[in-house]
Amino acid sequence: MTTTTYLESLYKGYGQSFTLDEVLFEHRTEHQELIIFRNSEFGTVMALDGIIQTTERDEFIYHEMMTHVPILAHGNAKRVLIIGGGDGGILREVLRHQSVEHVTQVEIDQAVIDMCKQYLPNHSAGAFDDSRANIVIADGVEFVNECTETFDVIISDCTDPMGPGEVLFSSRFYEGCKRCLTEGGVFVAQNGVAFMQPEELVTTRRRLGPYFADQSFYNAAVPTYVGGVMAFAWATDNTELRQQSVELIRERFERSGIQTRYYNPALHVASFALPQYVLGALDDL
Ligand code: SAM
Binding residues for S-methyl-5'-thioadenosine, per the UniProt record (predicted)? Predict the structure, then answer.
């Protein structure tokens, strides 16, 4: 049997390949090309429009850092909004916080939710059925510009800025998120691998920065987001949230009773430190 390979197509001249040990699902949905396959190194892998979205083996890093950093920094998050996140990993981690009373998740593609429930069940681990979760199938940019509710934390777990995900990197989306955030609320978003996609951070600074008193980034190394550490956009009007001590974060983390495999208070605080090449690109604005 010839084992074929899956070549990620995010970058023209560089990319990662996975042996396709078994294709579990491959279909063009209403919005994007969805494939879910088995790989001997990373377990079950999901890709959209040729770009790796998540894998069984390393998903915990991204999902823990995109949720526990903003929620524990905020300190009293009761209502959370997730944009995208169709695999359910973000929803699972948010709902581990007993202090969170309500989560609305706005995902554009029902097929991603359905197929990830079926082929990546440990990502959501039942989170979609949690009584606190409200799942909305819609375009995130329309939702945040029409929504009348407010949220303490907004997490944009979106695809890259192309196809349906492009609007989630627009000023209109950021303006909508600002209007949906409570006072002192926190917005975070996946913002690409800074070494490979520095223009994504510069664009985010230009478009997101004007709406908030404090706009920066934090980061974590996620093996299958190739090319270096993954950047997460950060935005809030509470400038103290990015300066909190390890002791304060540790107290909140221990009170949450959450066990993690990547996140810890020391990493939380350290993740806001950025390399010179990123600081330089942002300073030039
Ligand atoms: N962790 C991944 C990453 O960092 O690239 C993202 C994972 S998640 C699968 C991305 C989700 O964003 C997908 O489920 C996709 O359908 C959803 N999405 C893309 N554009 C969207 C939009 N405009 N509104 C809501 N959801 C969107």
Answer: 32, 107, 139-140, 164
